[in-house]
Write a structure and sequence with these properties.
- The structure is a single chain.
- The protein has 489 residues and is mainly α.
- The chain has one domain.
- It starts with 10 loop residues before the first helix and ends with a helix.
- Strand 2 and strand 3 form a beta hairpin.
- Helix 5 runs antiparallel to helix 11, helix 16 packs antiparallel against helix 17 and helix 17 packs across helix 18.
Length: 489
């Protein structure tokens, strides 16, 4: 971290330590804009992931019978804007915040499938509160140290594969087959690719992958925008429409027909804010106390470790990490991050977390919280363009999911597969997430197998007590239904 004696030029300079960190206001503004454009894809992707999935009651976010993507987009941009500004003012670091990819998939497919959206978002709020308490008490480091490093990595890798599978399924690239392998290529699951929407997805994926390989800044967002424009052109010519529930037009668009909305700019509808039930999921008639606690714990794990890695990685790139590995205002940074997790649930848009894409802003010269304020303001402005999300078909957004899955899976190189005691649990964590379509199942299998292998090898004392507790909870979670059957409950 820079320790230059350059005197501050103004109150703004003094507050954000701009000169002290050898930056300028122009650099911070430029960096904040760069971070926004590399993160802006979440305003489109988050609605695609959580806004198109019905909860256990058959309702979509906002208590609707059909998806309302602009509603979710506006709330996504609002919470991201407010929390990113908070990070700038309180943490005073150039870290952008928004709904976490992977976390939102878990909320949609792993939690809302078991309860109502209000109950699911209540668990997200609880997760944020728990992490906040861990920060305040200093217990967060203890929990972080309790989980073996290879399992931490495996969780991220597994979520990456899970997101990739979601992208392929949403694009109609793979589907359950009527006979033979569980999954096959093509909308009909017959091993063949057909239809203009599938071609649009493939072209969008190739273009996005090319830009990521060339390290084009904002490549994911450019990919979504470019693929959407191609989809609009295709729809204008072919008039494909949207798939019908009876499946008679499988080669049509999966989510919505890509065409310009009636209005591009509109006053944001923020009615999603506050739609959560804090303890609704704990009702015995829903998932129950044990299952609800495990879901909160799983959310916490996924959020917990990604944040720590992002803060250290981006902070190091910005020169904010000292030689002893510490960073100024770490407590404030982690506290804002935990509040963001709770705010995401309170805003019904899933847990918000610190984004590794903040590194793009750092690459443009951002070193202080002023850059985060700029990014946050741009997110708030993005609320007014929420109607544009209606023109993005799932085939145009799916390439971004596949690419994000790749980026998350790239961490697999950190796992030592020659150490079977850790590698086998890591492997089970990774493969069971996409194979069971459940992030919880993957994490649970990894934790339980790790404890069992260590115990059988006579190394039970090397397992942290917290890990024993978590593994025991997961055993209860996995066997809850059989025991209910035996007890006649």
């Amino acid at each position: 971290m820079s320790d230059t004696k350059t005197p501050p030029r103004s109150g703004l300079d003094r507050f954000f330590m701009i000169s002290q960190r050898r930056s300028t206001v122009a650099q911070e503004v430029r960096g904040g804009i760069a971070t926004f454009f590399t993160m802006a894809y979440i305003v489109v992707l988050n609605p695609i992931i959580i806004g198109t999935v019905a909860d256990k009651t058959g309702q979509y976010l906002g208590d609707g019978a059909v998806p309302n993507l602009p509603l979710v987009a506006a709330a996504t941009a609002f919470v991201a804007g407010v929390m990113t500004i908070a990070m700038g003012l309180v943490g005073r670091v150039p870290f952008g915040m928004a709904a976490g990819l992977g976390l939102n998939a878990f909320v949609a497919f792993g939690i809302a499938s078991q309860m109502s959206w209000e109950d699911a978002m209540g668990l997200v709020v609880l997760e944020g509160i728990v992490i906040g308490i861990l920060v305040i008490t200093g217990f967060r480091v203890a929990v972080f140290n309790a989980i073996p490093p290879q399992l931490k990595t495996a969780i991220s890798v597994g979520i990456g594969l899970f997101i990739t599978l979601i992208g392929f399924v949403q694009a109609g690239f793979v589907r359950p087959s009527a006979a033979g392998p569980p999954l096959k290529l093509g909308e009909l699951g017959n091993g063949s690719l057909t239809g203009w929407p599938t071609l649009v997805f493939v072209l969008g994926l190739l273009a996005t992958v090319f830009m990521i390989a060339r390290k084009v800044k904002g490549g994911i967002l450019i990919g979504i925008v470019g693929t959407t424009i191609l989809a609009v052109v295709v729809e204008a010519i072919a008039k494909l429409g949207v798939k019908t529930p009876d499946g008679k037009n499988p080669d049509s668009w999966g989510l919505n027909a890509p065409k310009l909305p009636e209005s591009v700019i509109d006053s944001p509808d923020l009615s999603l804010l506050g739609q959560f039930s804090l303890f609704g999921a704990f009702d015995a008639g829903k998932v129950g106390v044990v299952a609800a606690l495990l879901l909160v714990f799983t959310l916490m794990l996924a959020d917990f470790f990604d944040t720590m890695g992002t803060i250290v990685g981006v902070g190091s790139q910005a020169g904010l990490v000292k030689k002893d590995g510490t960073m100024d205002r770490t407590r404030e940074i982690l506290l804002v991050d935990s509040v963001a997790a709770a705010a995401g649930g309170a805003g019904s848009v899933s847990s918000n977390t610190t984004y590794v894409e903040s590194a793009s802003g750092v690459g443009e010269g951002a070193r202080t919280g002023l850059a985060s304020v700029v990014t946050g303001v741009l997110f708030l402005l993005a609320m007014f363009f929420a109607p544009l999300t209606e023109m993005v078909p799932s085939e145009a957004a799916a390439p971004a999911l596949v690419v994000v899955g790749f980026l998350m899976m790239s961490q697999i190189r950190e796992i030592d597969f020659s150490d079977y005691e850790a590698a086998i649990p890591a492997f089970l964590t990774i493969v069971l997430m996409p194979f069971t379509y459940s992030i919880t199942a993957g994490i649970g299998a990894g934790f339980v197998s790790y404890v069992v292998i260590k115990a059988l090898r006579g190394k039970a004392r090397t397992v942290h007590p917290l890990l024993w507790l978590v593994a025991a909870l997961f055993v209860i979670y996995f066997t809850l239904e059989p025991f209910k059957g035996l007890l006649g409950l």
